[in-house]
Amino acid sequence: MMPRALLLLALAAGALFGDELQVPDMRAFTARLLASYVFVGTGSGVVVSADGMVLTNHHVIDSVFDYSVRFASGIQRPAHLLGTDPVGDITLLLIDDGHDLPHADLAPADCLVVGSDVIAIGNPFGLGDLDDVPTLTQGVLGTSRIVRGDYTDAVQGDAPVNPGNSGGPLFDLHGRLLGINGQIRSMSGFRINSGIGLAVASTQLAAFLPLLRQADGGYVHHTCLPKAVELVADEDGVRVAHPGETELHVNDRLVRIAGRPAVSIATAIGLFSSLPYRPDATIPVTVQRAGELLELSIPAARQTIPGHPYHGLSIDETDGHVVIDGIDPLSPAMDAKLQVGDILLSANGRTLAHKIDWLKATVKLEIGDRLDLVVQGKDGTERMLSLRLRRQ
Amino acid sequence: MACRPTVAACALTLLIGFACLDGAAGMDAPRAVIALPASDSEATPCGGSAILISRDGLALTLAEALPGAHPGEDRASQAAAQTVSVVLAGGRTRQADVLRRGTATTAVLLLIRDLPEDLSHPLEMADSSALQIGDTAWTAGNSFGAIEHDGIAAISRGVVSGLYAIPSDSPPVRGRGGRMLSDYRGPVIETDAAVNDGNQGGALLDGAGRVIGLVSLGTARERRLGTAVPIRAVLDDLGLATGIAAPARPADAPSLALAHGAALVAPSIALVYFERTGGIGNPEAVPRPNRLPTEVPEFERERLQNWWDEYYHQQQMFYTDQPVSALVIDAKAGLLLTACSNLHGDADHGRVLLPGAPAIPVSVVARHLPLDLALLKAEQPLPFPDAVLSDSPQLVIGERIGIVARHRLDAGFTLTSGMVSATARRRLQSTTIFAQTDAHANYGSLGGAVIDGAGKIVGMMVLLGPDEDRLQWAINSGVALFADSATVLRALPALIQGTSTTYASIVGLGVILGRPFDGHLTIIRVEPDTGAEAAGISAGDLLLKIDGHDIISVPLLARLLLTHREGDQVTVLVRRSGHDLSLPVVLRTFLERQE
Hints:
The structure holds 2 protein chains of 2 kinds.
Chain A: H1 4-8, H2 26-35, E1 37-40, E2 43-47, E3 53-56, H3 58-61, E4 69-71, E5 76-77, E6 79-85, E7 90-95, E8 117-122, H4 128-131, E9 135-140, E10 146-148, E11 151-157, E12 169-172, E13 177-184, E14 197-201, H5 202-213, E15 218-219, E16 223-224, E17 229-234, E18 237-243, E19 253-257, E20 260-261, H6 265-272, E21 282-289, E22 292-299, E23 301-302, E24 309-310, E25 313-318, E26 321-327, H7 332-335, E27 343-347, E28 350-351, H8 355-362, E29 370-376, E30 382-388, E31 390-391
Parallel strand pairs in A: 6-15
Antiparallel strand pairs in A: 1-2, 1-4, 2-3, 3-7, 4-5, 6-7, 8-9, 8-12, 10-11, 11-14, 12-13, 13-14, 16-23, 17-18, 19-20, 19-21, 21-22, 24-31, 25-26, 26-27, 27-28, 27-29, 29-30
Chain B: H1 7-16, E1 33-36, E2 48-52, E3 58-62, H2 75-80, E4 83-87, E5 93-101, E6 107-112, E7 125-127, E8 136-141, H3 146-150, E9 154-166, E10 173-174, E11 180-182, E12 186-191, E13 203-205, E14 211-216, E15 227-230, H4 231-238, E16 244-247, H5 253-265, E17 269-274, H6 298-318, E18 324-330, E19 335-339, E20 349-354, E21 357-368, E22 373-378, E23 400-406, E24 413-426, E25 433-437, E26 449-452, E27 457-463, E28 480-484, H7 485-496, E29 505-508, E30 511-517, E31 520-526, H8 531-535, E32 542-546, E33 549-550, H9 554-561, E34 569-576, E35 579-586, E36 588-591
Parallel strand pairs in B: 7-16
Antiparallel strand pairs in B: 1-2, 2-3, 3-6, 4-5, 5-6, 8-9, 8-13, 9-12, 10-11, 12-15, 13-14, 14-15, 17-18, 17-20, 18-19, 19-22, 20-21, 21-22, 23-24, 23-26, 24-25, 25-28, 26-27, 27-28, 29-36, 30-31, 31-32, 32-33, 32-34, 34-35
């Protein structure tokens, strides 16, 4: 019979790539991981602060209005939306009146090492909806930080991940949060584990957390490839075909973007999109020009959130006034307590007298933008309010 | 211009060209795996892989990995391809010439032109004939274009889960839309490490990062796990057999313990063949949906693909006509335990298969439906050792376990490895508690033994997944339920006495629910003479709420209904043609499943 100590090594079996790490007390270790796990909607989430900030996927909460979470203990807690990233698929919730909650710490970049052992926790196939029992699965990191479509800073793991794992944590054997599981890649057509689970990496989580916290229930944006910049691939990698209005030069070879190697066109474009957008944000780019390495700082452009911006208002023109004649239920306009018959005096600083003024004021707005209105109610009182366009 | 050695010269290079891959140097292994991108004309999203085996740029792959390869369907274009593009570690592109093709296998020898200096660290090869089931195995390849995207192969860890031959009469393996992935037939190393489209031609590595096989997309259909063509077979076929430096490295200690346990348990697992009363599907003989046209709208494409997937799954998996595993509980008395799921619904008789001896007829003594257990009795004593089920299994979440099973008489046993995922899993409206593992489970695992890291039998593999009505979700999903050995032992006396246990009755609405649509469950059928019918619920309605609670999953519905009794009235909110209707429904009891 094998000694028991060997069993406890079970998860540290990566003789080739993994660090030689032991989990001395598996029962205590998994209990610790489970304590920060929450069920969210049909998916999963993880508590990342003592006051109850919960990370999950945007696609988990996209179509729900109830943000409450349920712990593996069965305890249900109300929560509200702090901010969401529809492009990077990350959402931050805050548990109401949370304090002293068990939570996971984000893993620093140097923990995202290919071959290291990982544990995913989730609610595959909704199994835990019946018994409040989350599912733990194990595997290794199959890549370091990669770009896959809109997941511009992701890691890939082979721990089984299935529908219901979305938004759930991917831990290392120190219990650090390596990422938020969000996608699988499969050719079989069945949306089940293929050994390729993609998680938004802790590095991107850390970069976006400050913005998500301050988003006041709204959207955060990604950067993107500056306008008119064109890239081309050749035998030895990626180079600039057109620099747009940046300080890039034609034929600059892209070496690193946002600190990560630009090994392919898809990766390079993704890396330009991997950072949180702020008005003064720049993207560090290392290029090789005439044999020399140059460090450049490219002003970041804001990435548009795909979809139709939506306020839920319809208007008509009456006697030189722009008047609300319809408000959709569950729309930003209804949340702002606008009413049919209210007169819109101005929108984003533009005085409104005709329908065309309203069109001009709103036509260029994007998802997540604010619409600042001055409104005259039916009783004649004027008030200022601001609503945020969301994705329809 | 790099040297262009002849094949004869290359054999020499193989002998002297290997870097030692000990310790941290093992990290180099993925850098010697290269991509064969799909050709522009292909509808497939990713190409294949190859492995670098000499400093001069010699590389090995399989024909199924070459651009434009549709094995078995387009041999002519394969034969024509003499030069292919390759993507090397770091994202650099080069051309490679096809030097030689195998005849016994689909092996292909490539020579890469102008191999960059920094990439001249070929993979070492290890003798795959020394492999044992349970040895650590890694895959490294261009899965879903990983090398093309990231400039480095993606890796996955598992074990050598089986060593057998895919029979020559097996149907080819197809992917989405009916595209043929592989028609390789012959000896394989099966692994539970990830193998996906793009891995074909890539590396299966031992625990020291040495090549033991070239990954193929060929699978045994009752297993549907990744396989690799043993590297020795590849080298023999190409006349390069001098390249093997050492036997494959034995597994690490925990893997060895599990492998050792599996080898001890395997002789107590019998293979039983049950005649299918519903007929046997030959996937290639049954009419199938047409291959997808390329110009269809995206949503239509998805629907057609789902149709194809379900068809394919049913043909490939459900109608597989293979013997199944059964645990020998009492050889002298001829008693065996297997999973009810293995009986194909209603089989009462089968036969235990023995190598080189007549099969022994068995009959079903009793069934325990909630546990998915069936007790079988053979007409004569069985020439197997008894399986000893642990009466006090210690199942700790996170600790390693394995599934040991058999699927063909000539295939030895199989072992998939994982850990305990959960220990208190309830199934829909059942009082039985199951344990759960992330070890890959498939039709070839049902009825097998679940062993812990010390080799004790701690359970029996009874359910591939959470929901037997949607088995296609469950194959190798990493979500598999098993009955722990103490629970099995408790159920055994009644089974031996011939007493069957059926499902407990449950309270319900009287509707059959389909796949979620737009975040809601769809009612696909309303049972006659039920509260749902009386209330006017109709097929096609979306189920939104019950008594004000959002119903977003079947388990949530079940959880809610657990609090009710027959005769209770609930308010059901459904959406029909965009309008929400609130309907009072009186609950009644049902059998969970009608047999």
